[in-house]
Design brief:
- The complex is a heterodimer.
- Chain A has helices at residues 48-55, 78-88, 104-114, 121-134, 150-162, 180-195, 207-210; strands at 4-16, 21-33, 37-41, 63-68, 71-72, 89-92, 168-172, 199-203, 215-220, 223-229.
- By secondary structure, chain A is an alpha/beta fold.
- In chain A, the strands form two sheets. Chain A has a six-stranded mixed beta sheet with strand order 6-7-8-3-9-10, sandwiched between helices.
- In chain A, α3 runs parallel beside α5 and α5 packs parallel to α6 (180-195).
- The longest helix of chain A has 16 residues, at 180-195.
- Helix content of chain B is 50%, strand content 17%.
- Chain B contains 25 helices and 25 strands.
- In chain B, α2 packs antiparallel against α9 and α9 packs antiparallel against α14 (430-463).
- Chain B is elongated and about 100 Å long.
- The chains are: A alpha/beta, B alpha+beta.
- The A-B interface holds A 15, 49, 53, 56-60, 78-79, 81-83, 85-87, 89, 91, 93-95, 97-101, 110-111, 114-115, 160-161, 164, 172-173 and B 419, 421-424, 427, 429-430, 721, 724-734, 802-808, 810, 813.
């Protein structure tokens, strides 16, 4: 029996302003198992990124239940959520979101430095370099983001997401800022990560890449309107 | 070019950001108002011409007495010397005059306190060409030797004594036994040059001939006076320094000629200098105005730095709107104009408040610093000063707007709009963030430390015990009228009868006779020389006070050695003296001078014995002088010191009735409580305390605003970066600690850089007689305060970000 790593039941997310309430997500029911590769598709404004934020504990649902690794996300403090993100979740953003003034090495080292489980500098270095090597960017370890190409930056971002060995990798439009060649390479990398057992949940517009996932969720107006399942790639 | 549309958009936008607008307007108004007032003050004192014709050529002669080439009495000149120059110098001055500043009591108007008198030759006022409310000034027929009893009143005296009676001309005022006919009243807008003191405004002008000097004082070259001046209009082609050298040589040759038979003057000479009226009036107060101006400039810089941070914060909060404008085709110039329009509106609003603040400061200065700073009567807020400061601020703010528009990356704005909500934002380098914090900290540390330092030093001086009793103690200078012409014995007898009569009065607890010099007075001081050896080789100078046997008791002045005068000694024994600790230390190396004999430096080297040593006074801002107390055997300028029973007081009328019972010539020239006199003495300290307190409060407010805004700005700039860190698992506490660590370096560097600057400033101020000690401890205190403030400001700024979920920071949601 496959291990359930997260589940959502009746999850809603509403953004309120002075003038109106915007219902970004409505009654989301979702279960993701260990080793899954889930893609989330849908038109702009359908709530894909909001769903990813909730999944990654970057935000909290307005209502509904979200259980991750057996813990109710609504009951997690900001600090506990941060610890959970640090230890169990990796994030990859469309625009890489590397910290400009840190080198690739230091960007990748950040999650380890924030970890409660302190490791020696030597071990940190080994782990960071291994992570950079995994995405084939170790030779650019001391470059700052401004001196890396888009594809290289995304590799660094993937290395950063993987450095703490997360069980869940959340990926938001990973190829959105890349040309098709670089996009394909990044997707190959992500598939490889998934094949190693890491659960992957990816938001994408690109149906070519969405089709690579075992399970595809289609969102419209904040609701999951269709779930497609593939049994083999 | 800013258009109407820019302005109306800016107004609408600012009305939605009231806290921001209010913070900027008030900070700017305070800084501009204070600086405008200080620029005006500085301009008034040091730059604006005096309101007299040919003011640049008006000079005053000041002299020093020298012994073996060293100055031993400063600012004194013999009466005969100035008379000689007035009579016989035709080479250097186009017009010459004499003035003797004094005080007296008007005897034709009952129970008037003392009035300030000026005994002058006609040229003195003619040089000033005062506007007249009534009549005229003295003419040449009323000059030296004419002995014409006429008088010119000041506008204030006309108001006070004659209630602005339009028929006052021809009426008389009596001084001593002489009735002086009023021939003129100066106009209200006539400003007398304050040649002697800021505290003194002459009320009655009288002819020189009626001055209070005795015939021997007028004739002898050995009498040196500090309140009589030769003034003149220097011929335009002459250099004052060269003329002073020539006058010194001339005066010295006469001085030596007339004093060659007197041993006291054997090694003495005179030196004179010509001091321009402006220099004489302003003196060394330019240190104070420079200090105030520097404080105002630092305050303005602090405010501008704070405001620039607020502007940057504003710019950040406006990024989304700018991105939309940019997407709609706005060029960088359009965005800059929009920013500039906001800044202009804020500056305009600030100027209105600034004018009110500047007016307020000037009014306060004119009321509280009248006696401490010269030319305050002329001080007005000039539109030129305000315009200058405003233009400076406008330029600086325009510059800030430009810098702000440079900070906003035009290309990034496009991206911001395209990816809004998708987790992108602007990141600013830690170096730039650190630089902003560094500048803010340096300015705040300097301003806060220096104002606190001045505050503490002035306050310490204010609260230190003065060393004599002040509660229920009153000082009463006496006018003795024609008794001055009577033999000494008669004057002395009358004064002792008066004191004994007062001792029996039910309101009086203690009464003492003293010469006109009181402990708290800086005016009319008499100095004496004391020879340590019989051959008069080593001489010491001391302030001399003639006292009776009750003086020490009334003032509760403790003897540290020896004894007081007996009643008999205080009447008849000029051969006994009491000295203070300072003089005792000067006279003998160990200060043990009781029982030792010293000498008056007269022809016979008359010996006298020190019978007691009293404790030094501790008067604020005045190093203790050598003091010599002699028996009250002569009483030319006498005074009384009374200690009244608790709750009792005397009116001038009451006192004059008591005085008249002893002798009708006795008049009280005023009744001043020792506390009032002390208040007057410490007025400069109080002014320093008030200014320092205001500066400290303003520095604190602006500094707090600045420190908060720089932290808030820094955190806002890092909002997105913090979001990334949160997304990859940084706990809130870790981010807060990291922020504090990041800010710690520029904070520490800023505080360390401020220290040498403060020490340099303190060194400069110390040379100008300000206080320097303790600046480091104040700096440490201020540093702790700034660190605490920074920690609080950092936490206040970061908590709204780290206290919410990471997506808020990443997407820019509030």
């Amino acid at each position: 029996m496959r291990e359930l790593i997260l589940s959502m039941k009746g999850v809603c997310k509403t953004f309120s302003s002075d003038e109106m309430d915007i219902h970004a997500l409505r009654n989301i029911d979702l279960e993701i198992y260990k080793g899954d590769f889930v893609s989330i598709c849908g038109p702009s404004g359908c709530g894909k990124s909001t769903l990813l934020s909730l999944l990654g504990l970057l935000d909290q649902p307005s209502s509904g239940q979200y259980i991750i690794a057996g813990i109710d996300a609504n009951r997690l403090s900001l600090s506990d959520a941060a610890v959970h993100r640090n230890e169990k979740i990796g994030f990859i953003f469309q625009s890489f979101n590397l910290i400009d003034e840190l080198s690739a090495f230091d960007n990748v080292a950040l999650p380890l430095r924030y970890s409660r489980n302190k490791i020696s500098e030597q071990q940190l270095r080994l782990q960071v370099m291994a992570s950079l090597a995994q995405v084939d960017i170790a030779h650019r370890a001391h470059f700052k983001p401004a001196h890396l190409s888009g594809g290289q930056q995304q590799r660094v971002a993937i290395a950063r997401a993987l450095v703490c060995n997360p069980t869940l990798l959340l990926v938001d439009e990973p190829t959105g800022n890349l040309d098709s060649r670089n996009g394909d390479r990044i997707m190959e990398l992500l598939q490889q990560v998934n094949s190693n057992g890491t659960t992957l949940c990816m938001v994408t517009h690109d149906l070519r890449y969405a089709d690579l996932a075992r399970r595809q969720l289609h969102l419209l107006d904040g609701q999951i309107i269709q779930t497609a399942q593939q049994h083999s790639l | 070019m800013i258009g109407r549309q820019d302005l109306s958009s800016a107004l609408a936008s600012l009305s939605l950001a009231r806290n921001y607008s209010l913070s900027v307007v008030l900070s700017l108004a305070l800084a501009i108002g204070v600086l405008a007032a200080m620029v005006n003050l500085h301009h008034q004192l040091l730059i604006k011409p005096l309101p007299y014709p040919a003011q640049q050529q008006l000079y005053l002669l000041k002299g020093d007495s020298l012994r073996e080439g060293e100055v031993d009495l400063k600012g004194v000149v013999p009466y005969s010397a100035i008379l000689e120059l007035y009579r016989n110098d035709s080479e250097h001055f186009a017009t010459k005059g004499l003035v003797h500043f004094c005080f007296d009591v008007i005897r034709s108007i009952p129970d008037q306190a003392k009035v300030y008198t000026g005994y002058i030759t006609p040229e003195y006022l003619a040089l000033l060409q005062p506007p007249m409310a009534l009549g005229r000034i003295f003419n040449s027929d009323e000059g030296l030797g004419a002995k014409t009893p006429v008088t010119v009143l000041s506008f204030g005296a006309w108001q006070k004594f004659f209630q602005q009676d339009p028929n006052v001309l021809g009426k008389t005022l009596r001084f001593g036994d002489v009735d002086f006919q009023i021939i003129g009243v100066t106009a209200a807008d006539f400003i007398e040059p304050q040649l002697q003191s800021e505290r003194r405004a002459t009320q009655v002008w009288l002819p020189w001939d009626f001055g209070p000097l005795r015939p021997d004082e007028r004739d002898g070259w050995g009498w040196l006076f500090a309140d009589q001046y030769f003034v003149g209009l220097l011929k335009p082609d002459l250099q004052s320094q060269q003329v002073a050298v020539q006058l010194s040589a001339h005066v010295n040759s006469l001085f030596r000629q007339y004093t060659r038979d007197i041993p006291f003057f054997a090694k003495r000479s005179l030196s004179v200098e010509l001091v321009n009226y402006r220099q004489a009036i302003v003196g060394d107060t330019h240190y104070i105005t420079l200090l105030l101006l520097a404080g105002a400039v630092v305050l303005l810089l602090t405010a501008l730095i704070s405001i620039s941070h607020l502007l940057l914060l504003r710019g950040l909060s406006q990024q989304q709107y700018m991105a939309i404008k940019s997407a709609l085709g706005a060029r960088p110039a359009h965005l800059f104009n929009a920013l500039l329009a906001e800044v202009l509106l804020l500056l305009t609003a600030a100027l209105f408040f600034a004018v009110a603040i500047a007016y307020g400061i000037i009014a306060v200065f004119k009321s509280v610093a009248r006696d401490q700073l010269p030319r305050l009567a002329e001080l007005q807020l000039s539109w030129q000063g305000l315009l200058l400061v405003s233009l400076g601020c406008a330029l600086l703010l325009g510059g800030f707007s430009w810098l702000l528009s440079r900070q906003i990356n035009y290309r990034t704005l496009h991206g911001l709009l395209q990816r809004s909500g998708k987790g992108v934002g602007i990141q600013l380098s830690s170096r730039r963030r650190g630089a902003l914090l560094f500048i803010q900290v340096v300015l705040m540390a300097i301003l806060l430390s220096s104002s606190l330092h001045i505050l503490v030093q002035s306050w310490r001086k204010l609260v230190q015990p003065v060393g004599f009793a002040m509660e229920n103690v009153y000082q009463i200078p006496l006018s003795i009228g024609s008794l001055r012409e009577q033999p000494i014995v008669e004057r002395k007898t009358n004064l002792h009868i008066l004191r004994d009569r007062l001792l029996l009065h039910p309101k009086v607890f203690g009464a003492s006779l003293a010469a006109s010099y009181f402990p708290t007075s800086a005016e009319y001081v008499s100095h004496a020389f004391i020879a340590v050896d019989k051959h008069l080789r080593v001489q010491k100078q001391a302030v001399i006070t003639a006292i009776d046997s009750h003086y020490l008791q009334v003032l509760q002045l403790p003897l540290v050695a020896g004894r007081n005068f007996s009643e008999q000694e205080s009447r008849d024994s000029p051969a006994r003296v009491i000295v203070n600790q300072t003089l005792a230390a000067e006279l003998g190396a160990d200060g043990q001078v009781v029982g030792r004999t010293f000498y008056w430096p007269d022809e016979r080297a008359t010996p006298f014995e020190v019978i007691g040593i009293v404790r030094d006074f501790s008067l604020p801002n005045r190093p203790e002088e050598s003091r010599l107390f002699i028996p009250h055997t002569e009483a030319e300028y006498p005074g009384l010191i009374l200690r009244l029973r608790t709750g009792e007081n005397f009116t001038l009328e009451e006192m004059n009735r008591i005085l008249e019972k002893t002798n009708v010539q006795f008049k009280a020239a005023g009744i001043v409580s020792m506390e009032q006199a002390y208040d007057r003495l410490v007025a400069p300290q109080r002014l320093s305390v008030a200014i320092a307190m205001v500066l400290a409060v303003l520095a604190l407010l602006l500094g707090m605003l600045g420190i908060y805004s720089v932290h808030a700005y820094s955190v806002q700039l890092r909002r997105f970066e913090l979001g990334i860190r949160m997304a990859i698992g940084a706990r809130p506490i870790v981010l807060a600690v990291q922020l504090l660590k990041n800010n710690g370096i520029p904070l520490a560097v800023g505080l360390l850089v401020a220290l040498p600057l403060l020490v340099c400033a303190a060194y400069w101020l110390d040379r100008s007689h300000f206080w320097v000690i303790g600046i480091v401890s104040i700096w440490m205190l201020v540093s702790l305060f700034i660190i605490a403030l920074s920690v609080i400001a950092s936490l206040i700024a970061i908590i709204p970000i780290i206290g919410k979920s990471a997506s808020h920071a990443l997407t820019g949601r509030q």
